[in-house]
Design brief:
The complex is a heterodimer of chains A (about 150) and B (about 550). Chain A is of the alpha+beta class and about 150 residues long. Chain A has helices at about 20-40, 60-75, 105-110, 130-140, and strands spanning about 5-15, 45-50, 55-60, 80-90, 100. Chain A has 4 helices and 5 strands; from the N terminus they run βαββαββαα. The chains are: A alpha+beta (about 150), B alpha/beta (about 550). Bound molecules: flavin mononucleotide.
Amino acid sequence: MTETVYRLVYYSHNRIVGSPAALEAGINSILEVSRRNNPLANVTGALMFNAGCFGQVLEGAPDAVEQIFERIQMDPRHSDVHLLSFASAPARAFAHWSMAFVGASVPDAARYGAIADDTGYSPARMESEELFKVLQRLALEDEGATP
Amino acid sequence: MLSELAGGVLTIGSDGFVTFANRSASALFPGPGPVGIQLLTFLDLSGVSNGSALVEATRSRTASAPIRIGLAGGRILDTRSCPLPDGGAVVTLLDVGLYIHEADLARRDPLTGLPNRVELRERLSVLLAEFQRTQAPFAVISLDLDHFKSVNDTMGHPMGDALLVKVAERLRSALRPSDILARMGGDEFMILQSDAAQPQAATALATRLVDLIGRTYIVSGQILNVGTSIGIALSPGDGEDVDSLLKHADLALYRAKTDGKGVFRFFQISMDEEMQARRLLELDLRSALAFRQFELNFQPQVELDPRRLVGFEALLRWRTPARGLVSPADFIPLAEQTGLIVPIGEWVLQTACRQAASWSQPVSVGVNVSAVQFNNARLVQIVTSALNASGLDPGRLELEITESVLINSTQSVLEQLHAVKSLGVRVAMDDFGTGYSSLTYLQKFPFDRLKVDQSFVGGSGDGSKGMAIIRAVTALGNSLGIATIVEGVETEEQLAQVRAEGCTEVQGYLTGRPMDAAAAAALAAESPSPTAVQGDPP
Ligand SMILES: Cc1cc2nc3c(=O)[nH]c(=O)nc-3n(C[C@H](O)[C@H](O)[C@H](O)COP(=O)(O)O)c2cc1C
């Protein structure tokens, strides 16, 4: 049976305040919850944190993605969630990751990614397709991406 | 075994799909039954309220407390979820409709499962009674969705309802256990916030809610955006009883709406006074037609080189014994909000046509028509009967519409405009250049005339910019074959300037102030007979 896959791409602004350690704990807890919840809903995807912004791709059955996205929308740890796209996709791009964390390692992202810079990938400055491609490429390259 | 149980039982696989439903469970829901569908999808499809709480519970690895869900028919179930070793869960459904007192149902909103207006009023009166003892201040927060009606109209009621369920859940997620949230009806919600320092707590909550509710929704696969406006009344300062607190929160909400939506406002005494004044004005306005308090003034429209009267714009005046002359800026918006503009506008059309028909020269008459009059759908009929009753040549009537008529332009508005035009009536775009995208409207409808807004002539600051715009619009009109007229010309110097920019028609204090019907008739009589007025020959 071929499944209907919808892909959602958004970016948002970090609202976790405090030391790099607090941020690291925050990101880790997001990943932990995602890796617990997403498999139950058969949702896969990737998350990055850079330049003070989260960028995330979620893919799965439309109602499952819709439901997880609604929970994410209510999360006070980020704000200004910009939904870049939500549309059907030919297949999953992150089939093996319940939620890959891509780019720098979590501790490095927490240390350096909170700073808005112009050098790294700023999710806020990317179009939907570009952000998706970057997340996909990083996930494939990055051995640190834990399934 | 399971299928023999009196209560409903569902089993859910680790993938969230329903794997089994016993007979009682299937009987609770109409249709083909849940097996083989995701529990969430099934509950959504069946119109169950609070279903997502149950779905959440089935994902948990511990047994849940009872979760109350509402079925589409109004039945109430208490549900429980127990985890299965394989990662799935068993859900039991108990129809508690029988146990719940009728009175309890009357206190609950079936769509969201939230307390309704009755319950909220009672909780508020409890808080007020406790205040006698505790002296603890609390906030009454009223909110509704901006543009919810257009979601309902364009996407349908089921989508509107699904959106309301998500809104209710977002609201709930931002509250503390001591807060009380109710759905008052439609898209109106009310929150009672106690046990917190005011007004700081209400400010913080309102700020969060404006952000939270304004975030994008995905509802049944569709992307939706709505905002919220919020009004806040504080006890005890803003009222000492249920009615006044609720009323004042609503007044503050009304202010938030008129201040541009997507904001929150605290109640202030002046809002009460303003509302009172508005109500009195509305009462007077309702009787104004019957008391014949309206009159029309006419402002000349003049062609240059040689200078010659070509028409008048009819301007509505309202005079009452008690108020004297009321400014249109004060009563037209109210007339539009209350729908009174429809009968008033009909009177204006009839009167303007009758006056114009009595003039000895066939100059034109311009009549303003607002967006609300187009919603009425009777506009074409009203125009036709004004023309018939007066015997006025349709080519001498010009309807002036502003961008607001076209901004949400539905097919129906364009159809009405075309129908009016096919009667031979001309249509002018008023206040041209002040809207967001005046140019796009020129593509939507073949206007006969552009009325260049007066701000470009009399505007403060850099006059040369205004003149550049007048030049551009005049040229645009020429190349599109649309006549242009510049409004607001007050001095000879301005007249010389606009003439130099190629403008051929003006309306303003310099070439004629608004005058009463008799003076207009006299002016028309002494003007040379027009040859340039367009329209069908009589
Ligand atoms: C940037 C960001 C991304 C998130 N991604 C997910 C996700 O993919 N899956 C998920 O279940 N929760 C995600 N969350 C967390 C949710 O907002 C929410 O806290 C969580 O789903 C609650 O799950 P629980 O009820 O199981 O604790 C994310 C939060 C943030 C701030």
